[in-house]
């Protein structure tokens, strides 16, 4: 297996944890995030494996920027074996009654359109190599809507689940597989965007980013002839 990967949302949370675990397992990882400063924090906090991490700031909701990102990453890494779409956002005013148009489009652009653009940027190279795994970090909100998540987030996550199924329906004959991971509540900075962020005590009972990252590594390390299309993980 060619141990090269692209991880979005790598400036914090699950994306950051995935990048670190891959790098410590000997992978070369292109870390992608909207803000260069958060990617630098990811590098600085993993000094032992920073040589395996390459930072690529990019707004993944911008199709042209993602196309340029794909060209730059492939030029640097040669090929990409794994893509992990871990970028995600939400808005405090998320209910149908108060959701602003700008927030709606920003959530869809990041969570769904961004995952699609990133997938399309690297899928042709995977198809040509007849090898690759694409992992979508979805959410339990991608299985059942809840007022806690808000409609824009729910719609984006249902879409990510559909993108995963479509990849497997169309690309498994080309050696490419996809896995959608549906976590329950995770203690990440995204919680601070809730209308009422949970207190510290509640966060201690949630999943950790490393828990979800372990699911990612399981999915990508399966033999090439096997795939797990969906994986649900919740706090015990």
Strand order, largest beta sheet: 3-2-1-4-5-6-7
Q: Kindly name the structural category.
A: alpha/beta
Give the end-to-end Cα distance, rounded to a whole number of Å. 34 Å
CATH A-level architecture: 3-Layer(aba) Sandwich
Overall number of domains = 1
Rg, rounded, reads: 17 Å
Q: How big a fraction of the residues is strand?
A: 15-25%
Please report the first level of CATH classification, the CATH class: Alpha Beta
Predict the CATH topology. Rossmann fold
What is the tally of helical segments?
7
Summarize the helix and strand pattern as letters.
Answer: EHEHEHEHEHEHHE
Major sheet size, sense and barrel closure: 7 strands, parallel
